[in-house]
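Researcher: Next sequence.
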Amino acid sequence: MLEKDVSSLIDVLERERDCYKELLNLARQEQQIVLSDNIDDLSSVVKTVEKTVVISCDLEKERLQFLDSISENPKISHKAQALSELAAKQGLPSSQKLGNLQEEISKILSELSDVNRSNAELIQRNLHYVDFLFSLLDVEDQTYQETGEKKIAGSKLFDQRI
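Model: Next structure:
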């Protein structure tokens, strides 16, 4: 029974790893889209990311259920709280595969975090640039009256900032 649960856990982890790889590829696509200023494509990528995140959450719940089931097995002396603990258990023929999946998933998630951080910085820079451009367009037109005092004529292009 334990080996069957571990095998099912490995299946879930492989699907979860594939899901994270997809999220990483989508994050890289987002980065290229932001760099190329192609906003139309960004919308479709964001929708795909949202769907993939939902799938990822479902797989994570499934993974946690299998870990709970495995940790309640009498062959395991104490409750396994992490995949690394389960992989380290002696006598499980698939422990190396679990360890490899853990490493792979950790590496993918770390890389995904880096790409997401970079994307956030790029988007923030673009927002600052857009804000800067709007501030240039919204400069008040200053002229001088015949008496030498400044006359403020108002905004050049916009009456009100939104």
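Model: The chain has one domain: 2-142. The chain has a mean pLDDT of 79.
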